[in-house]
Each structure stands twice: as C-alpha cells, then as structure tokens.
Amino acid sequence: MTAAPGTYESVSALVRRETSMVYDAGKEYLVEARLRPLASAVGCTVDEYVARLPVDPAERRKAVDALTINETSWFRDHAPYQAFTESMLPALLEERAITRRLRIWSAACSSGQEAYSIAMLLDQHLPAGWSYEIVASDVSTAMLERVTAGRYSAVEVNRGLPATHLVRYFERAGNEWQVVPQLRERVSTRHLNLAAPFLGLGTFDVVLLRNVLIYFDHATKYDILRRMRPTVGTNGYLLLGSSETTLDAPPEVADLWTREAIGRVQVLRPAPPTNGTRSLT
Ligand SMILES: C[S@@+](CC[C@H](N)C(=O)[O-])C[C@H]1O[C@@H](n2cnc3c(N)ncnc32)[C@H](O)[C@@H]1O
Fold first, then answer.
1. Which end of the chain is flanked by fewer CB atoms within 10 Å, N or C?
2. Nearest to 230 by CA among 203, 267, 258
3. Position 2 confidence tier, pLDDT thresholds 50, 70, 90
C-alpha cells in the first residue's frame, strides 16, 4: 500500500475493533484495493479517506463492509451438506418428532449461499408437516442486504450450484438470478458480531460457523466457541469450516463439545454437562 505511515495500522485497528478480524501485516494491497473505490466515490485519496473514518460513521460502516472477507459458494466443500442430508437431518427428524420444527443458524453467512443451500436441502428432504427457520447473521450489513435480496450474478450461481437447483429454486431477475420467494421467506437476517454477546437468539438444531474463526485470534475464537455452546440445542450440531477445529482449544472450551465424525466431516455436539458447574455465558 503506497499510503502514509500509520494508514494501514489505523485501518487494521478499525477492523479489529469492529469485527475482531485480524488484518496481519502484508495485507496492505487488499486494504488499498478495497478502500480505493470508496475513496474515489467521495473524491479523495485512500489516506484522506482513512483519516475521515473516525468522524464519519456512514463511511466507517461502508469501509468495514468492504474489508470483510466474504468468500463463499453454494454447498461449499460438499461433504458437510452430504453429512447434513444423510446423517444429521435423519437424526434430527427423530429427535424433534414432537415439535416438528427445525431451526438452523448460518452464523457469518456472507452473501447467503450457505443459508440458501441448507434451505434447498430442507425443501427437498423435510417431510410434510415439518417447518423450519434459518437465521442468517453477519457483521456486514451489505452482506445481509444481499441475503434478503437473494439475488446472484451468473458468475455466482456458477460456483457450486447444480443446474437442477438453479432451475428449481431461482427466477431470472434481469442479468441476475433470484432465489424463489418460498425459500427467501424461510431465511431471516440478523446483524450480529460474533465477538459480542449472542442475545435473544434462542437455540438451534444446527449452527454453521464456517470459515470465519480463521480470521480471529485464539482468545476470540475460543471465546466464541464457549459462548456458542448454549445456542446449540440438545443433540444438535455445530459445524466449523474444514480447516477449523477445537483440537487446539483449552480444556475449558474443548470439554464443552464432543467431536463426532460423519464420514470425513467433523461435527461438534454439546457435551453432556459434567458434575462440576461451569458458567457458559
Ligand atoms: C469467508 S466468509 C464465510 C461465509 C460462509 N460461512 C462460508 O463458509 O462460505 C466470512 C464471513 O464472516 C463475516 N465476519 C467476519 N467477522 C465477523 C464477526 N466478528 N461477526 C460476524 N461475522 C463476521 C464476514 O463478513 C464474512 O461474510
């Protein structure tokens, strides 16, 4: 980044403060690429733009949105979705036979491909008489607006979406594709910073916390894993990204979870309470 001394440091401190994401040294090029269009839009240099962020909440929001890493795709990594359909869902259909209702949380949902991938599977595999709700949350308001709109470019729908699903679950919307209303109405969005308390969310049968912990430092990651525990209902599931694990977590966090292999997918399940009382909040 060809910026004045201190510019990169103040951007990385801002991102850390607002999202807990750690922007290591060496990502200067990314900061410049993401902020330059915003700076140009208000007619200033990246340095000048960064200097105004502390006193301009609207631009600060846009800058933080631009600096989050939103990489995602439909049915990302495939195997977790296969495990969901073939193992988790049948088990949950037995477990929740009385309420006949499932709640899923896509925490760090990005532009919504994860939430809508699950919605498509539930649409196909949930027996008649069952209902479901998917909560999609993210720290980026721009991403949440995208989830609500459910509109995707031709490039985006090409990333992991089977053609049959495109035909069945999307409508043409100009140059884009829009998720059909019957799936969109099942997905509600919520602005939520994972590094802050999870208030009023209730419990979920499956929580997808995928490909986001990698951006946090160890203390933040373990704290999130600890606070996640009460959000997963009895015999529910927590799914992390394929490179994320609790193996390195301290015992007070690791002991809250039981690791289980479903094929080659590791899932976490709430560990049975021990006799020692441990605060989960
Ligand atoms: C790489 S995407 C992962 C999307 C999706 N879970 C997947 O696996 O495809 C990471 C997402 O985490 C969000 N994020 C980053 N920091 C966050 C935080 N502190 N709280 C909530 N979401 C956060 C970003 O905005 C981004 O949308």
1. C
2. 203
3. low
